[in-house]
Amino acid sequence: MQTQSTVTYDVIIAGAGPVGLFLACELRFAGVAVLVLEQAQDPHSPLKQLPFGLRGLTIPTTEALYRRGLLDEIVAAQRARSGAIKSAAHWMQRARKPAGHFAGIQFFQDDIDVAKWSWRLPTPADAHVAVDMETLETVLAARAARLGVEIRRGFGVTAITASEQDVVVQAAGEIFRGGWLVGCDGGRSTVRKLCGFDFVGTDPEFTGYSVAAELADPEKLSPGRNFTPTGMYTFAEPGTIALVDFDGGAFHRSAPITIEHVKAVLRHVSCTDVTISALRLATTWTDRARQASTYRRGRVLLAGDAAHTHSPLGGQGLNLGLGDAMNLGWKLAATIQGHAPDDLLDSYTQERHPVGAQILDWSRAQVAIMRPEPGSRALQAIIRDLIDTRDGATYFAERVRGVSLRYDLGGRHPLVGRSVPDFELSDGTRIGERLRDAKGLLLDFDARASLRMLARRWSDRIAYVGSEPKDALGLSAVLVRPDGFVAWASDGPPDHDAAAEAASRWFGD
Length: 509
Fold this sequence. Notes:
Layout: E1 3-14, H1 18-29, E2 34-38, E3 54-57, H2 59-67, H3 71-80, H4 82-88, E4 98-102, E5 105-108, E6 129-132, H5 133-147, E7 150-153, E8 157-162, E9 167-171, E10 174-183, H6 190-194, E11 199-202, E12 207-215, E13 224-228, E14 231-236, E15 240-245, H7 259-270, E16 276-286, E17 289-292, E18 296-297, E19 300-302, E20 308-309, H8 316-337, H9 346-370, H10 374-387, H11 390-400, H12 431-434, E21 440-444, H13 449-457, E22 462-465, E23 477-480, E24 486-490, H14 496-507
Parallel strand pairs: 1-2, 1-10, 2-7, 10-19, 21-22
Antiparallel strand pairs: 3-6, 4-5, 8-9, 9-10, 11-17, 12-15, 12-16, 13-14, 14-15, 17-20, 18-19, 21-23, 23-24
C-alpha cells in the first residue's frame, strides 16, 4: 500500500554514498531541506572496508574536504588505521614514496617538479590521503546528521514523476515530493533510467576481479603489480588479489562467482598453477566507460557514477563524483533560494561534463596499454620511459592528482577557473578556512574602499576579506566562488566593473 508523504523537501537525493552525503551537506549549509533515500538497509559492506574499499583522494577532493572542515577528521581516521591501510596498499610498501600510477606504471613523489605548479601555495590539502569508503561514508553521514539531513535507508526509488513545478518520488511504498531530485545512485542508476537520460560510451574489454582468498601456495604469485602475457594482477599477502581478464567483460554479472571459476581465471592471468583453498570474498567489475549526455533534465540532475562510469583504475570515480557534488551544491541552493542567475544551474553540466569526459578517456588510455598484445606492450615501454623523467612524472601527477583542473569560465587572468591558492593571511588564517561556511569570498589584498562596497552588495553571499597575505603571488584582488574556484582575479589596480560583472554572473543581482 502506498502512503503519501505530507512533507515537501527542497531536494531529494537518491543514494547515501559519499557523493549523495557530501551533496546533502553542501545543500544544508545553505539551509536547504534535504531528504536522502538509500536503497540499502545496512550501510556496511565488506566491499567498502579494507582492502577493497581503499581509495586515494585527489587534490580537488582534499581541497573540498578541507574547505568544509572535514579533512582533519578524515586524516585522523586515516592515521588511526595507518598500519591496516599500508598493508592493504602494496604500493605503500615501497622504499620510494609513490605519487600515483598510470595503468599500473608507478611514478614517485621525488620525481615531481612542484615548482611548475605556479598557482599553488603550501596547504594542508596537499596531504596524501588514502581512506576506505566505509570510514569516509561514516564521517560524511555524521556531518549530514549534525546539519539536519534526513536519511532513510531501505528506501530504493521505484518510480518518478517530474513536472515543471516539482518531482514526486516513490520509494518503499511511500511517496515523497520535492522541488528537485538528484540521482547519486551509482552506475546502474534508477534515477537515470527512469528519467530517460542518454548514457553513451564504450563497451568493456575486460572483466576485473577483486578477491580475498586463502592460497595453498602463495609463493607462486609475485607481490605487487604484475603484467603477464595474458593480463595483469596485483597480489598482497596473504590473499588479496586484483586481476583483469581481457574477455570483453563477458563474465561480469553473468554467473555466480565460484572458487573454481576464480581459480581458473587466476591461473590463466598469472600464468601459474596457484591453488585457491578457500574463497572468502569475490566481486567483479569492468572497464565499461559511459557518460550521460547532460547532467540535468528539468528538475532532475545526476552526480557521481549515475552521471559517468568507467574502470576503477586509479580510483578516479570517487573523486570525480565528490567534485560533482562540490560544484552542484551551491548552485542548486542558490537556485532554490531565488537569487541565482538564470543559467547558473546549467553551468553544472557545462563545467563538469568535460571533466568527466576527460577521466573516461584517461581510463580508456590505461586499458589500451594494459592489453596483453605486442602493440600495447610497446606503448607501455614508452610510457615507462616517459614517466621515469621529471617532466613525465610531473605531467602524470598533474593529471592523476587533479592539479591541472581548470574550468573554462572565460576570464582573461590565467588564475580564473582554477582552484584558489590557499593564501595565508596576516592574522594566521587561511583561505581554505574562510570557505567553511560555503559563501563566496572577495579577497582584497590592498583593502580598497571600492571593493569593500562591492562586496556589501552581495553581503549575504560574499564575504569580504581585506587582508594582506604572506605571499600574494603578485595578485591584488580575487573573487572566489563558494566551491573555491576563482571567478575573477587582478594583478594590478582592480577593474571595479569587471569584478562587479563577475559577481553578478555567479551570485545574481
